[in-house]
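Data deposition worksheet. Section B asks for the primary sequence of the deposited chain exactly as it was used as input, without tags or linkers unless they were present during the calculation. Section C holds the resulting structure in token form. Section D is free text for depositor observations; keep each observation to a single sentence. Incomplete worksheets are returned to the depositor.
Section A, Depositor: J.P.
Section B:
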Amino acid sequence: MIVVGAGFGGIAAAIELAKHGFDDVILLEAADELGGTWHYNTYPGAACDVPSHFYSYSFAQRRDWTRLCSRQPEILDYIRTVAKDFDVASKVVTATLVTNCRWDDATCTWTVTADGPGGEVSYVGEAIVLATGQLNQPMWPRIEGIDDFAGHSFHSARWDHDYDLRGKRVAVVGTGASAVQFIPAIAPEVEELVVFQRSGNWFLPRRNRAYPKPLAALYRSSRWLQAYRRGFLFRYGELLTAGIRNPKTVGRVLGLYSTLFMRRQLRDPEVRKKAWPDYTFGCKRVLFSSAYLPALQRENVELVTEPILRMTTAGPETASGVQAVDCVIYGSGFKTNDFMFPMEITGVGGLSLREAWADGPHAHLGITVPGFPSMFILYGPNTNTSGGSIIYYLEAQAGYLRQALQHARDADAAAIEVLFAVEAASDRAVQAAFAGTAWTQCDSWYRNEAGRTIANWPGYMRQYGRQTEFLDPSHFQLIERPGTTATRAG
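Section C:
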């Protein structure tokens, strides 16, 4: 069994498989250590939007978090600890970038090719789990002359800690979730900060201070309180999803709450005008911060909403002129629509996953794709959450793929493949569920250029949990082992 990626998803899959007798598992990780996005994203202020008692595995609860929404070092320490405690860390091969996964019709196995420290290496397995996620590859904005800038530059997802920002004039391109966290952190240090915004964000409050010692002690000592907090966060996340699914009712109430919070924070009328979103609440990712909007109103911070026409040697140029800066930080997010690409995936009969996804990525429950036997995707198409914890989805997906492999093992089959008709019907139902929701009322990274929503799950966490709880064998066909009279069996 080959798992590509050793972040939250890959580790969850390895643990779930091991619990049910699938011990021959290897995890291939491109980075020099496990951790996924929490290994790479080390920018100042990096933390999770989801409270840690919910943004953690249900089977590996921790009650000694230092604050509501833990910062990157604490989350990374948690992932490493879980991987060690469940004997997953020893199965991880680091510094190994997978470039190709190819199904062999004759042997009914997958060959995975990767670039390792010693050159190209290949692995063969009966199944593959692609756990590269949606928030993995940094996206650089399409700006004319981006390489012409003579100063220093880097992407927030690959933060350059060797570069000293103190006393520098710095430009930030992008105001998404990462920028919202690092801008308040660096604003007091730099001489001047110029923030280039394409569109404003809807915000909800999050102070995220360290727990007082008595409260921290109470959380550590009470299992009941931990369970209550997880349950509360589950319901809170479902409420946010309800607001996005019902923009004219619940969404208006949540939007009003956000409006009151933002107006209270944005005292400067000029900054308020620039920072205010011009789209329906919930159409794009709702951000949680009580520090970002005040940071925009600092004397040394300027918010620019004019588009960047080009990058010059001195800095970004807009219709008003050139902003000369020492450093440009690109907080422009990730290639969310690329999933595991540019990795090449080839299935039955030489079918390319690129060709199968020509109109946009799709998979049954975001996990399985017809024509690609015993291939499973974690955090795949239409499994992003706008109101909950992705860890909940990853655990559900790990359980589902484990059931699929169990079904194949019990039948002594070589592989298992979702039926084309099942996946097509599943995809139609998912896309139809977006009708009338806030997700369809603007352009966002949730959607591709054709307007198809490919990132988010359109329903509630509880719905996804129910649909993945039990695998329906009739949704799949089994592929018999080589040498039998038939290639496929229903």
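Section D:
The longest helix spans residues 223-245.
The two ends are 23 Å apart (CA to CA).
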